[in-house]
Amino acid sequence: MKNNAQYYTKTAQIIHWLMAIIFIVAWLIGFYSGNFLSYETDGSFKGDVITLHKNIATTIIFLVVIRIFWRYTHPVPELPDSMSPSMKVMAHLGHLALYLILLALPITGCLFSWSAGHPAPVLYLFNIPRLIGENPQILSIVKPLHIYISWFAGFLVIGHILMALKHHFIDKDNVLKSMTRQK
Ligand code: HEM
Fold first, then answer.
1. Ranges of each domain in the chain
2. Using an 8 Å Cβ cutoff, are 88 and 79 in contact?
3. In angstroms, rounded to a whole number, what is the distance separating the alpha carbons of residues 173 and 93?
4. Which residues form the Cytochrome b561 bacterial/Ni-hydrogenase domain (predicted)?
């Protein structure tokens, strides 16, 4: 939804920054566990770290659904006129890719855990109901998928941050402010 709004709504801003923090923390913990820990040398500590990764990362599923709903039911600021039409298309495609990634990562993460015979816990409170049982064939697909998507997501988020900083410090436009201010 678009109109003459200059800033995202307070709710959209809160969800955006909450998801940003959760994404970065979940990414770093997943990366640490996947690349620096092994069951042979770190034993149950690795299990604890993966459990922490899952308990934080599963919240993204709920937040992204709320976020998408909010995005299409509330006014969104227009991109600045100083941007060329092709840059605007690139920005929209980048944002679409971020939404898809934020859905794909927790979905492949849950499928990864379930197919390996483990639960998908949320904030140490409850488990997401299992949609599939232990299944080595599915595991052999969703495990590399989760890892490759997580790498792609890392680059995408770095690009997103760099573009936001470019808007603020080089173009000196309203783009970053639209996600941080109300007036
Ligand atoms: C936004 C959400 C998520 C992000 C950003 C994310 C990110 C990552 C990253 C960066 C890795 C390491 C990849 C590598 O080995 O290089 C990873 C591994 C993993 N993720 Fe996720 N993930 C997310 C959601 C989930 C969810 C919801 C689950 C399960 C409920 C999950 C389960 C796992 C598991 C089991 C590993 C393997 C860890 C290991 O081998 O030590 N992830 N994730």
1. 10-179
2. yes
3. 20
4. 8-181
- Of all helices (H) and strands (E), which one includes residue 96? helix 85-115
Q: Which residue among 33, 123, 139, 142 has the greatest number of ligand 1 atoms within 8 angstroms of its CB, and so is best to mutate?
A: 33
3-class DSSP state for residue 122?
A: strand
The domain defined by 10-179 carries CATH number 1.20.950.20 = yes
Question: Which residue, among 102, 119, 129, has the nearest Cα to 54 in the 3D structure?
Answer: 119
Q: How many residues does the chain have?
A: 183
Residue of 150, 152, 155 best suited for mutating to test ligand 1, as the one with most atoms within 8 Å of CB: 150
Q: Ligand 1 centroid vs 99 CA: distance in angstroms?
A: 17
Can you give the pLDDT of all 183 residues of the chain as single tens digits? Answer: 545 688 999 999 999 999 999 999 999 999 999 999 999 999 899 999 999 999 999 999 999 999 999 999 998 999 999 999 999 999 999 999 999 999 999 999 999 999 999 999 999 999 999 999 999 999 999 999 999 999 999 999 999 999 999 999 999 999 999 999 987
* Residue 105 beta carbon below 6 angstroms from any ligand 1 atom: yes
CA of 107 to the centre of ligand 1 (A): 10
